[in-house]
Design goal:
binds adenosine monophosphate, alpha/beta, 5-stranded parallel sheet
């Protein structure tokens, strides 16, 4: 199964990608997670990416494309993959298509998580994550049992640098100006599968699987 998850920041791409990766037994590849891990380890790639991420801007295409194409050469992607956060621009989508075509493949579908901008802002501004085990919380809708601590491993929860209100607004603007065009791009090729993302995660996965079954026949 070769899938791309599309949608604005806060649509639930990471959560759904993880759940779909388990369902289809393929790796979950998140460009945002890769950049954050590199930034934490202070690698040259991480330092470069951080300049862009901290202000909500996109990392330049050539850096992201090289990183993803490299990752897709690894043998664990032979049966497929779930791409989360890539492509985000038309040149990235074209680079992905070229790579797949050269390997005799194509995407099975592009799952587009549809969600309203105001819900995105509320979701992201209240989002907290565990640096230890990756668990996600929301201050209003799913707080931890003990304030500021992870229920699973007890680590102190953190807020992503780019989840403050002005940066979320900037990320949304960039989504509308640079990434939304990919809906039309993939609609033309018949690969786009729209899924309403305004529901609890289990329900969104159910919707996505139902839509994928209908799409793949
Ligand atoms: P995410 O975790 O997907 O929200 O990504 C966090 C940040 O990483 C984004 O706001 C960008 O700065 C950067 N990033 C992740 N994926 C890409 C991509 N495909 N193209 C450009 N920048 C990206």
């Amino acid at each position: 199964m070769r899938l791309v998850l599309l949608g604005p920041p806060g649509a639930g791409k990471g959560t759904q990608a993880q759940r779909l990766a388990t369902e289809f037994d393929v790796p979950h590849i998140s460009t945002g997670d890769t950049f954050r891990a590199n930034a934490l380890a202070e690698t040259p790639l991480g330092r470069k990416a951080k300049e862009y991420m901290s202000r909500g801007a996109l990392v330049p295409d050539e850096i992201v494309v090289e990183m993803v194409l490299d990752r897709l050469q690894k043998s664990d992607t032979e049966k497929g993959f779930i791409l989360d956060g890539f492509p985000r621009t038309r040149p990235q989508a074209e680079a992905l298509d070229s790579l797949l075509v050269s390997d005799g493949h194509r995407l099975d579908a592009v799952v587009d998580l549809v969600i309203d901008d105001e819900l995105v802002v509320r979701r992201l501004v209240g989002r907290r994550s565990c640096p230890g085990c990756g668990a996600l919380y929301h201050l209003s809708w799913g707080p931890p049992l003990l304030e500021g601590k992870c229920d699973n491993c007890g680590a102190t929860l953190v807020k992503r640098d780019d989840d403050d209100k002005p940066t979320v607004r900037r990320r949304l603007e960039i989504y509308h100006s640079d990434t939304e065009v990919l809906e039309a791009y993939y609609a033309t090729t018949g690969q786009l599968v729209k899924v309403a993302g305004d529901a609890p995660e289990v329900e969104v996965t159910r919707r996505a699987l139902e839509a994928l079954r209908a799409h793949l026949g």
